[in-house]
Amino acid sequence: MIRIVRHVALAAVVAALAAPAVTAQSYPAGGDPRDGLGSGLTTAGLAMEGMRLVASAPKPAPFDSVRGLTFVNSDLAFGGHYIYQGNFAGFSIWDVSTPANPRMVSVVECITSQGDPSIVGNLLFVSAEGGGNRNDCAKGGVQDPSEHMAGVRIYDVSDPTMPRLLKNVQTCKGSHTHTVIPDPKDAGVVYIYVSGNQGARTDMEGCVSGDDPADENNSLFRLDVIRVPLANPEQAAVVTGARIFTGLDPAPSRSGGRARPTGPRNCHDVTAYPAMHLLAGACASHGLLVDISDPMRPKRLDAAADTNFSLWHTAVFSNDGSKVVFTDEWGGGTSPMCQATSMLEMGGNTTLTIKDGKYTQHAYFKIPTGQGANENCVSHNGGLVPVPGRDIMVQGWYQGGVNVIDFTDPDRPIEIAYFDRGPIDAPRAPGDTAARGRGTIGGSWGAYWYNGLIYSSEMARGLDILELQPSHYLSANELEAARLVRYEQYNPQSQPHITWPAAFPVVRSYVDQLERGNGLPAARITAIRRALDGAEQASGAARARSLRTLAGQLEGDVARAIDKARVRALAAEVLRLAGN
């Protein structure tokens, strides 16, 4: 039986055997179309279900080395018709106004490691971590401590063809990733929570190492917080540290002991949900839940640990904030952790529900296909797909490809679409000892829905653009409703609250869901659709009357419905469409 261990703030370690059991998805007995795809950097075989490949753009020439981590692509940010794609050696800006023909606008070479981007207005923020980054972005490494840059770079991208570096904001632990949080009281200010994984710097004044999480002078047990006045970004500076680890117990190890003498001292990354005043911290041994009502004074609400999670990494909230999906980057993203012999409980996702500021852990999920021994594969970055009435996310799995998951039921997450390529490297022959070591690192770093399409940052190959297609799992109405959601800018680690316009596709999405789940009798579903068709053909007051009549009938359907909550939601959407 699979067990989990939960932690709450200031509580002792809960024994593994006392924790609730959870379930995991198993590999299909009959195989999967993704199994055994042909290899090749540009000639690999393709498998897809429920989506199609719109375009695939190659990596720009300056980053066109696929061997080693130096030049792989990293994360994405979105603004208008531009995509900002990070890279360990800089970043690229793509014009996707014509999605079938993405156009490279500019390439900025800057040794940065790992270069995760965020966009706010005309300001692009880029993470920098490691000992070889220079203030001037040049190659060749750091020759003098004064040249060293570790923190967040700020660029002016008002002219996307000529990005201009405005400032390097130095931080004590560098910036592996970062998250933008708007000031709730001042629209002219944003805060950047910096997740840095290196030790406290010795080349920067004020940086202090230590073992005491409660020591206010300790640089390690905190997230550096940068305040950015948007009208004067040159004044951006570290203003405080988010001390969200104090009093947190160490996580248990799989052998039953404690993995380390203290809890985590940093986060791999954090996902903010500003509309809900929440933050989910993926912090190595723990997944944290944090109140960010006051971004300068965050408060930890809860923390979870799990012996089946190697590295808590990235989080996605449900739109209503009642659930969060965490990923586990088992193997660090460079190892083949999706083989048929790999553990199903590690290297995938787990869903936690949130109630009264506390977590309850539910099921695991992992892609139901065994990838090859030469394919780095593990769960990685993703975000919500805005289908009303359901919790759906798209996600990258490195060389495991891209897939779409429905986690509406936290105990039974299911895969509803996928896209995968074969491995970059050809499989090794049995007994081949000359080609030891890992293969080429590649695959989808992260995949995100943005204004009707899915964009995937392919680490070795470039940029993929995908489109979901109607299927047994997703109706045409649900996809049309999702396409009604439009963002001006989108940073996946600063999750926006999704709202839908009052529209017939939104209403019909709920009807399709009731049919799919047998939430109402088939004859009633047919009658509701007929009523909606009649209302749509009418206009003005006649349409409003028809819709209000239908809403009243739906309220009467609730008593006999299997899915009462969805019928109520449908009635509310019909009323909203009628103008109340």
Question: How would you summarize what this structure contains?
Answer:
With 580 residues, this protein is mainly beta. It has helices spanning 476-483, 504-516, 522-537, 540-557, 564-577; strands spanning 5-7, 46-49, 51-58, 73-79, 82-87, 90-95, 103-109, 114-120, 123-128, 151-156, 164-170, 177-182, 189-195, 223-229, 237-242, 269-273, 278-283, 286-291, 299-305, 312-317, 323-328, 349-355, 358-365, 382-384, 392-396, 402-406, 414-421, 444-450, 453-458, 462-468, 489-490.
Describe this protein's structure.
It is globular and about 75 Å long. The model is unreliable at 1-25 (pLDDT under 50). The protein is mostly beta strands and 580 residues long. The chain has two domains: 5-431 and 438-490, YVTN repeat-like/Quinoprotein amine dehydrogenase (Methylamine Dehydrogenase, Chain H, 7 Propeller); 504-577, no CATH class. The chain has a five-stranded antiparallel sheet with strand order 1-19-18-17-16, with no helix packed on it. Strand 18 (286-291) and strand 19 form a beta hairpin. The N and C termini lie far apart (51 Å). It has helices at 476-483, 504-516, 522-537, 540-557, 564-577, and strands at residues 5-7, 46-49, 51-58, 73-79, 82-87, 90-95, 103-109, 114-120, 123-128, 151-156, 164-170, 177-182, 189-195, 223-229, 237-242, 269-273, 278-283, 286-291, 299-305, 312-317, 323-328, 349-355, 358-365, 382-384, 392-396, 402-406, 414-421, 444-450, 453-458, 462-468, 489-490.
